[in-house]
Design a protein that fits this description.
about 325 residues; alpha/beta; D-Maltodextrin-Binding Protein, domain 2
Length: about 325
């Protein structure tokens, strides 16, 4: 009898061990979100390739169009993995939003674009009107930091014309309503492509890729010519599921590498999801931008330097303080 009970107990334990835990079971729907920008390229590939089909019954990509929509999505609890500027992640975390920074993947996508050739530094744009996307967010922040470091007042020394996103700034350029803009890829490649084609060629100006803000950052701050601009955070239900986070991190890194290795195919995929982009422009943007997958812990030194610069002038941009250690995702 004792042997029978012992055998039954062992069998029961084996059955329980074989049951999937909450972390190992599939989620019904997994939501990935990002902007009309390069940080979203791997997300789109993950959806199209079925990379996370082993951990989710349905995987969807939803784009956010402006910083306000981004912040709503970070708070509504319906998104699992969200691409965002690094300072926005720090700001939300410091204001009590439950999230973890997983990685930084965008290190260089900002350039000045101009109808005027030969402009080499931000000082060369002094007194000029510049279309600027996303007031008080990443492009505006980097521009302002670099201007101040060179003794320029971004509010007084430039005529900044704020618009809702880089694609709107691009449209102002190609329709001759402004002569200069700060753009992020792939909007730059879109502008350059548009001005080399008919019928827009009739009205659009010649455009020049001007100041590389990443090069300016390295020159002015005497650091590497790259900026930890954007990456991925986990939030909502994903935070309770380490196995899901592990699989996401693995597949995001793989998909980013696929994008780098296959720019033309990546362009086709991205253009399917974002109507305003063309495959050729996306491929062009991949070739000139700085993309690399760096886990949050490994990017911490660069992030803290970046956040410290922001805090000198506008602490609110990162929520008033440096985020603590819990902001950075640690592998269990």
């Amino acid at each position: 009898m004792k042997n029978t009970v012992h055998i039954l107990a062992i069998a029961l334990l084996a059955m329980l061990a074989a049951q999937p835990t909450l972390a190992e079971s599939k989620v019904d729907k997994l939501v990935l979100s990002g902007p009309f920008a390069a940080v979203s390229n791997p997300l789109i590939h993950m959806v199209e390739s079925g990379a996370l089909s082993d951990v989710a019954e349905d995987v969807a990509f939803i784009s956010w169009k402006n910083p306000d929509q981004l912040r709503v999505m970070a708070l509504d609890g319906n998104t699992h993995f969200l691409a965002m500027p690094s300072n926005v992640a720090a700001n939300l975390y410091n204001r009590g939003v439950k999230l973890k920074l997983l990685n930084i993947s965008v290190w260089g996508v900002l350039w000045m674009v101009s109808r005027e050739d030969g402009l080499e530094t931000l000082a060369d744009f002094k007194g000029k009107e510049v279309a600027m996307p996303f007031r008080a967010d990443m492009p505006d922040i980097v521009f302002s930091q670099l201007a101040r470091k060179q003794g320029l007042d971004p509010k007084k020394d430039f005529n900044l014309r704020y618009v809702s996103n880089p694609l709107d700034a691009m449209q102002l350029l190609v329709t001759r309503r402004v002569d200069h803009a700060l753009l992020a890829e792939p909007a730059i490649s879109m502008a350059l492509r548009k001005t080399q084609s008919f019928p827009l060629r009739v009205i659009a100006p010649d455009l020049y890729r001007s100041v590389d803000l990443q090069q300016e950052w390295g020159r002015v701050f005497q650091r590497a010519t790259s900026i930890p601009q954007a990456g991925m955070v986990a939030l909502g239900g994903a935070l309770d599921n380490p196995a899901l986070i592990k699989r996401f991190r693995e597949e995001y890194a793989k998909s980013l590498q696929w994008v780098l290795d296959n720019p033309d195919a990546a362009g086709e995929l991205v253009a399917k999801h974002i109507d305003m982009l063309t495959p050729e422009a996306v491929a062009d943007s991949i070739a000139v931008s700085q993309f690399r997958h760096v886990p949050a812990q490994e990017a911490r030194d660069e992030l803290q330097f970046f956040f410290e610069q922001l805090m000198q002038d506008t602490p609110a941009l990162v929520g008033g303080k440096l985020p603590d250690d819990n902001f950075y995702y640690h592998t269990p």
